[in-house]
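Hi W.,

Here's what went into the run:
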Amino acid sequence: MYNQMVVHDLTDEEMNLLFHALADATRRDIIARVTQREQSVSALAQQYLISFAAVQKHVAVLEKAALVVKHRKGREQIVHGNPEALRKAARLLEEYEQLWAGRVDRITRILAED
Amino acid sequence: MTFVSSTKNTEELTLTFVAEFDAPLDRVWQVWEDPRQLERWWGPPTWPATFVRHDFVVGGQSHYFMTGPDGDKGYGWWEVTVIDAPRRLEFDDGFATPEWERDMALDKTHAVVTFEELDGRTRMTSVSSFVSAEQLEQMAQMGMEEGMTEAIGQIDAILAGSTAGSRA
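Here's what came out:
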């Protein structure tokens, strides 16, 4: 139940979107590709065995979680990565890490009283 | 002295925390089993925990609240899913209303805690997952484990690359 109290920079809604977006291998692969180099949805679609529409859906999920940003260039939709959103996920785990470090310290002190 | 290591997995959304205590297995188990000891360490000093219920058996419920610096209270529940005293404990940890109804709109955390005795010391390993156990199992069944391991390296490289880029 620490999500609310420990993580200050993400709402529960944002966190749900982020977790959902990261929970799929194809989406993680898309993040990796477009963070290295921005590219169009159609260029992305050529690199997967799934349909253009399916790739478009994955991109929409990533966009909703702010993991990628989409803009128009003529008739093309260009996608690029947003490393800041990835860092949010990493920071969230860091908060938990600190929480556990504190717990272990407190347990050590309780055991030292024996 | 307490040796600690921790592993964060951004893609699996898990945190593995390993600590060693200068105490035998049974003694370390007590700090989980006894609610009066548990509430002395579960919450951070700024949000101390009070356990008003602690059924430390499989299927058992715990109810606790944490009190913040301004007197605000956060309510939580545990449900123990596995107990093999004094070696293994698994439970779900979620949010509750002040009437102890589960708030299912918010994600629960699943924790797996294992204990091993090594020369009179106890090693405690806790793995916290931010999605349900069922969800992780489903993903493993879909053969995503390997994909995840691969993705860790990818994301690391992405972050390293973009950090270097922003410095340039």
